[in-house]
Amino acid sequence: MNKHLKRTIIALSLLFLLTALIYISNITNLPENVILFEGEALDLKTLLGINIETEYSSNPNIEKIEEGKTITVSADAKETSHTGNLNLKVSLLGVKVKEINVDIIENVEVVPLGTLIGVKLYTNGVLVVGMSEITGKDMERYKPYEGSGIAKGDIIVEVDNKAVTCTNDLTGCINNAKENEMQIKVLRDGKEENTKLRAVKMADNTYKIGLWVRDTSAGVRNC
After folding, report:
1. Which tens digits make up the pLDDT trace of 17-39?
2. Strand duo 63-67 + 70-74: pairing
3. Which residues pair with 15 in a beta bridge?
């Protein structure tokens, strides 16, 4: 094998590795879970050969617009409800390589008053800001919160007689209970209410109840 052929093979190998690295980086950088409020939009830009398409949509009102290699998932809340769940399939040359779960929750408008700077909102417990369907390990869709009476604006303060002060406390209680029925205490309009519900086992062997909660104004978490 002459030197010119060796150099050509090495150059082509390096080009292939560089291209593979670029594609792996692009796929890796695509998020696995996305939370949108009604009225927000999400642009996912991909390289040639990488396609994104919808596998499942819980709400036909959720808009999906594909233009070339960019998919836009939007939720326009002006006329009707656009909350729900969207599962997107990412494929490379026809082979599925990743899933993206998009949860669209009801928009919560916060109107700040005064001139305070750097203030965070803390609650006694965790504040329920929304609900969404979840996909269990059996790939069925569930709404564990249905029938429990829990509503947006409720504050979860106790699970199975254990105080809940943050989202980590709540997720810990849920995973400890597994699929057993949980006793949940919430605050609603300053009054205590008691209810029950069961979590659903997920594909990663964790448990969720389909509630979006927050313990400070810094972010929202799916439990």
Report:
1. 988 888 888 888 777 777 777 76
2. antiparallel
3. none
- Beta strands 95-105 and 33-37 are parallel
What single DSSP character describes residue 198? -
Question: From start to end of the chain, where are the E strands?
Answer: 33-37, 41-45, 50-57, 63-67, 70-74, 84-92, 95-105, 126-131, 134-135, 141-142, 155-159, 162-163, 182-188, 191-197, 200-201, 207-208, 211-214, 221-222
Burial label, 199 (beta-carbon count in 10 A; 0-12, 13-18, 19+):
buried
Q: How far is Cα 25 from Cα 27, in angstroms, rounded to an integer?
A: 6
Phi, psi dihedrals of residue 204, rounded to the nearest 5°: -90, 15
Say if residues 208 and 144 touch (Cβ distance below 8 Å): yes
104: nearest Cα among 144, 75, 79, 65? 75
Task: Judge contact between 51 and 45, C-beta under 8 A.
Answer: no
Closest CA to 204 of 171, 170, 157: 171
- Write out pLDDT tens, residues 183-216: 999 998 889 999 999 999 988 888 999 888 887 6
Beta carbons within 8 Å of 185's beta carbon, 6+ residues apart: 156, 157, 158, 159, 192, 193, 194
Are 140 and 200 spatial neighbours (Cβ–Cβ below 8 Å)?
A: no
Distance CA 42, CA 71 (A): 8
* Structure tokens belonging to residue 76: 């326009």
Kindly tell me if the per-residue pLDDT of 157 is higher than 90: yes
